[in-house]
C-alpha cells in the first residue's frame, strides 16, 4: 500500500512538473502572438520624439533630430530602418467651402512612402497641377465623425465618401498665397499626422526659407521600424537618450517583458520539480534492487544480464512517463482551446497547442530511459561488483 501511495505522489509530481514547463512554452508562444514576436521578419513601428525639458523647450535644434542623431539610431541593433519626418515651415490652412463649413490651420508632414501604411504608388501619391493628395490618420476621421460632426450638427463621412471630397488648402509661401485642392487618398493606422508628398513639402520649405539649403537638417520626429517594440534593450536606450514614443506600445512592451519573466520563473520551478522527481525515481529503483539483492544475485549467477534487468525497469518507468506526458498535454490542449475561444485572445491565438510540444511524448521518455538505465547500471556494477 505504501508503494502505491509513493508511486501516486511521484507521478503526480511529474504531472505538475510537465504542466508547468510545457504550459510555459505554450504561453510563451501565445504571448508572442498577442504582443508581437521578436524576429528578423517582424515589423513594428514607433514614432520617436525628444522629451521636452526646461533646457530644450522652444529650441528646435535641441528638440529635433539632427543627422548625427539619425546616424546613431541606425546603428541600434534593435532598429531596422529610420524614416525622418519633414514638417512644413510655411503657413497652411484648410476650409470645406459650402459643403462642410469649417476652417482650420494645418500642420503638414512628409515621409518616405515606403514607411506609410497606405497602399499607394509613387504615381498616385504626388501633386498633379493644383491637386494635393493627402493621407490622414484614421483616428482623425473618427474624431471628426464621432466628436466634431455630432456636436456641431455636421454630416458624418464614410471612408469611401471622404476620398471623393475636395477641400481648399490655402498655403502662404514667401508672402504669396496660393489655393490648392486637397483630396484624401488614404488613411493611416500607423501615423497620427496629415501627410502630403515629401518632395512637394520640401520644395515649398526651401521657397519659404532658402537658407535651409545650407543649414544642417533638423527633423521634429522620426518613425522607426523595429524588430520588437517590447525589447528591453530598446526601451533602455530610449530612456538613456530621453526619447519618447507611443505610450500604449511601450506599455504592451513592459507587460510582455514582465510576463516572460514570470513564465521563465515558473518554467525553472517546473524543471526543478522534474529533476527532483528523477532523483526520487532513481532512488526508488535503487531501493527496489536493494530489497531484491538476493534475487538479483541469483539471476546474475544464472547468467541473467544485469543490464537487461536495469533496462526492463527503466523501460517500465519510461512507459509510465509517456502516459503522464499524454495526460499533461491533453490538459494543456484543453486549456488552450478554451483560451483561444475567449475574448482575451481577440482571435489571435490558435485553437490547438504547438505541434512540436507533442514530440515531448517520445523525446522525454527516450532520454529519461537512457539516462536512468545508464545511471542505475553504473551504480549496480560499482556497488555490487557484478
Briefly characterize the structure:
The protein is built from twelve helices and 14 strands. With 386 residues, it is an alpha+beta fold.
How can the largest sheet be summarized?
Answer: 6 strands, mixed
Q: Helix and strand string, N-terminal first?
A: HEHEHEEEEEEHHEEEHEEHEHHHHH
Low-confidence stretches: none
Question: Which of globular, elongated, flat, extended, rod-shaped describes the shape?
Answer: elongated
Structural overview:
This protein has 386 residues and is an alpha+beta fold. It folds into two domains: 2-37 and 252-384, no CATH class; 86-216, no CATH class. It is built from twelve helices and 14 strands. Strands 6-5-9-10-8-11 form a six-stranded mixed β-sheet. A four-stranded antiparallel β-sheet has the order 3-13-1-14, covered by helices on one side. The protein has a two-stranded antiparallel sheet with strand order 2-12. Helix 1 runs antiparallel to helix 8, helix 1 (2-35) packs across helix 10 and helix 8 packs parallel to helix 12. The chain starts with a helix and ends with a helix. InterPro entries: ABC3_permease_C. It is a multi-pass membrane protein. Residues 268-371 form the ABC3 transporter permease C-terminal domain. Keywords: Cell membrane, Membrane, Transmembrane, Transmembrane helix.
Amino acid at each position: 500500500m505504501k508503494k502505491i501511495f509513493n508511486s501516486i505522489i511521484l507521478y503526480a509530481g511529474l504531472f505538475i512538473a510537465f504542466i508547468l514547463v510545457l504550459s510555459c512554452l505554450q504561453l510563451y508562444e501565445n504571448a508572442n502572438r498577442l504582443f508581437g514576436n521578436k524576429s528578423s521578419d517582424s515589423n513594428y513601428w514607433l514614432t520617436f520624439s525628444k522629451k521636452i525639458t526646461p533646457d530644450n523647450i522652444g529650441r528646435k535644434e535641441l528638440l529635433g533630430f539632427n543627422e548625427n542623431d539619425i546616424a546613431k539610431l541606425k546603428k541600434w541593433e534593435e532598429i531596422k530602418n529610420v524614416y525622418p519626418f519633414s514638417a512644413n515651415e510655411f503657413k497652411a490652412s484648410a476650409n470645406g467651402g459650402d459643403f462642410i463649413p469649417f476652417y482650420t490651420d494645418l500642420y503638414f508632414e512628409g515621409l518616405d512612402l515606403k514607411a506609410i501604411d497606405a497602399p499607394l504608388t509613387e504615381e498616385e501619391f504626388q501633386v498633379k497641377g493644383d491637386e494635393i493628395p493627402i493621407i490622414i490618420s484614421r483616428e482623425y476621421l473618427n474624431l471628426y465623425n464621432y466628436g466634431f460632426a455630432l456636436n456641431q450638427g455636421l454630416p458624418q463621412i464614410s471612408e469611401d465618401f471622404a476620398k471623393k471630397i475636395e477641400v481648399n488648402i490655402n498655403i502662404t509661401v514667401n508672402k504669396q498665397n496660393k489655393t490648392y485642392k486637397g483630396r484624401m487618398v488614404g488613411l493611416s493606422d500607423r501615423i497620427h499626422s496629415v501627410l502630403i508628398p515629401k518632395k512637394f513639402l520640401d520644395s515649398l520649405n526651401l521657397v519659404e526659407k532658402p537658407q535651409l539649403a545650407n543649414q544642417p537638417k533638423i527633423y521634429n520626429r522620426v518613425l522607426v521600424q523595429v524588430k520588437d517594440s517590447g525589447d528591453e534593450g530598446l526601451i533602455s536606450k530610449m530612456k538613456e537618450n530621453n526619447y519618447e514614443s507611443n505610450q500604449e506600445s511601450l506599455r504592451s512592451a513592459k507587460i510582455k517583458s514582465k510576463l516572460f519573466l514570470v513564465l521563465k520563473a515558473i518554467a525553472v520551478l517546473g524543471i526543478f520539480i522534474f529533476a527532483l522527481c528523477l532523483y526520487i525515481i532513481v532512488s526508488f529503483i535503487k531501493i527496489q534492487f536493494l530489497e531484491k539483492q538476493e534475487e538479483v544475485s541469483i539471476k546474475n549467477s544464472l547468467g541473467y544480464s544485469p543490464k537487461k534487468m536495469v533496462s526492463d525497469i527503466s523501460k517500465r518507468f519510461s512507459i509510465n512517463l509517456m502516459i503522464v506526458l499524454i495526460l499533461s498535454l491533453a490538459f494543456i490542449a484543453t486549456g488552450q482551446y478554451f483560451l483561444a475561444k475567449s475574448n482575451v485572445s481577440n482571435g489571435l491565438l490558435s485553437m490547438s497547442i504547438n505541434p512540436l510540444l507533442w514530440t515531448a511524448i517520445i523525446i522525454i521518455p527516450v532520454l529519461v530511459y537512457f539516462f536512468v538505465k545508464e545511471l542505475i547500471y553504473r551504480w549496480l556494477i560499482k556497488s555490487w561488483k557484478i
